[in-house]
Amino acid sequence: MRTPEQLSDLTLLGATGVKYPTDYTPGILETFPNRHPENDYLVTFNCPEFTSLCPKTGQPDFARIIINYIPDRRMVESKSLKLYLFSFRNHGDFHEDCVNIILKDLIALMQPRYIEVKGIFTPRGGISIYPFANWGDPAHQDLVKARMLAAFPDIL
Fold this sequence. Notes:
Structural class: alpha+beta
CATH superfamily: GTP cyclohydrolase I, C-terminal domain/NADPH-dependent 7-cyano-7-deazaguanine reductase, N-terminal domain
Shape: flat
Number of strands: 6
Number of helices: 3
CATH architecture: 2-Layer Sandwich
CATH topology: GTP Cyclohydrolase I, domain 2
Largest sheet: 4 strands, antiparallel
Strand order of the largest sheet: 2-3-5-6
Distance between the termini: 50 Å
């Protein structure tokens, strides 16, 4: 069991009256130590209610965001991740930009061994967009290539 001292850096988890950010806020992300850094294991987050805005029209875009990562020394705390993803609600960017911003922010935050972010955006104007971005440390470059190839949809 983790001690209160080990959890002292987590300010959002268990806090009451937390304010939801209204603007893109990467600084809200928090981490905690990985207690199993000797293992390669997968952590998956599924956010089925992601929203952002079209940068040109201001119209809302809706998506399911899936984040998979293999942690190294630090892990992202889920409530801070939820608030961070919510901060895109009024953020105007293209789908591809949102996915890459999320990827880069999480790399900077945790320095994971491997991470991927996929956006499954609902159709607007009769077309769906599913951006996928990934990154891996030198020991996980085979996984980077394999997951990128696997992400190509079989639409035929």
